[in-house]
Design brief:
The chain is α/β, with parallel strands linked by helices and 435 residues long. The chain has one domain (3-431): TIM Barrel (Alpha-Beta Barrel), CATH 3.20.20.140. It is 37% helix and 11% strand. Strands 7-8-9-10-11 form a five-stranded parallel sheet. A three-stranded parallel sheet has the order 1-5-6. Strands 2-3-4 form a three-stranded antiparallel sheet, with no helix packed on it. A hairpin with a 5-residue loop joins strand 2 and strand 3 (45-49). The longest helix has 20 residues, at 122-141. 44% of the residues are buried.
Length: 435
Amino acid sequence: MRPEDLILVSVDDHVVEPPDLFEHHLTPEWKDRAPRVVRRKDGSDVWVFEGQQLLNIGLNAVAGRPPEEYGVEPTSFEQLRPGCYDLGERVRDMNANGVLGSLCFPSFPSFCGALWARTEDKRLAITMLRAYNDWHIDEWCGGAPGRFIPLALPVMWDAAACAEEVRRVARKGCHALSFTENPEKLGFPSLHDPYWDPVWQACSDEGTIVCIHIGSAAGMQFTTMDSPVDVMITVSPISIVSCAADLVWSQVLRRFPKLKFALSEGGIGWIPYFLERLDYVHRHHHRWTHQDFGGKKPSDLFREHIVTCFIDDPVGVQLRHEVGIETITWECDYPHSDTTWPTAPEQLAASLGGIPDEDIAAITWQNAVREFRFDPFSHRPREECTVAALRSESPDVDLALKSQGGQAPIEGEPRPVTAKDITSQLAQIYASPAE
């Protein structure tokens, strides 16, 4: 299949929230307590909430910048490509990349709304979380019908309230919930704890898929402080394997047969070995570990309940049947540093070369449409959903790389950037007052 003939639905992108996010979703009594954007003395913009400053970290929004400028320095909105935070420009950037649909994870509240989970005043916390969900569903997604898959944040500190929120947003057409790979690291019961049963039941009832993004528990993880930052970037996708194992060996998937999880930004090349290992462990150890899958193999349970996704993974594509082709979806990761924007169709086509068109369609849009309850074709004819058709709608998008400064060079002789460099830079940034 030619790149221009592809239909592309990305199940993992990101939004940098605009400064007016809370303007239309709070009553007057709450507006003064809402997070707000503040310009710091160094020229960067930060969100401020309850004495905390929340940065737009550079690597989270580098689309359109030269790669040599990538880094973690804080950014102002003027430094960002407008498509990071402006809905109209995001749609134009999607068109230029030939992407029909997009699911966008949050930025400043964290992937699972940890900002509000650690807010002491829980009445304030749930008010802000619901306002955020309403903005995301009604404005960000609702402002461009048929182009976005809504994604809600969870009420981590109250499972019953979380279940209620799942049902509330489902009535608004949102059937995806952003969760965490390890809630215990955030101070909550583990994935194995029945504490979460009301949430799993609500998701099962509403057909809501639970999206678990890499780094949603502890953020960046370094093996040692002397490790090059490339180590962290390399292993981040594969790190979701621990969460995958937790899910399969837990009782959750067996007790909630309709429940689905997505391993967001986790890649797929590692999965065939993981599935082999699951089945091997079960054959060798189930007599003393007391794991009973009712005649199924653990790998069967994985394929029934887990949705996977990849950015650029030629090995995984070649092993698609060992992964489970019905589980595979694609992602663009705009505007993060791993994104393939604006040449995603061309890069993806290189990975898809030589495989049947029906397999390509399953991977690039059919699985996503089914698993995320996304219906773009009710808003536009299918022939207007291809890469070529979308690019023709926004032919004037400027795709030239634009310098926006970038991180300060490391002192001394050129050398690999290490974890120590990154954490030191972040410590200095956070030490600078917001106002």
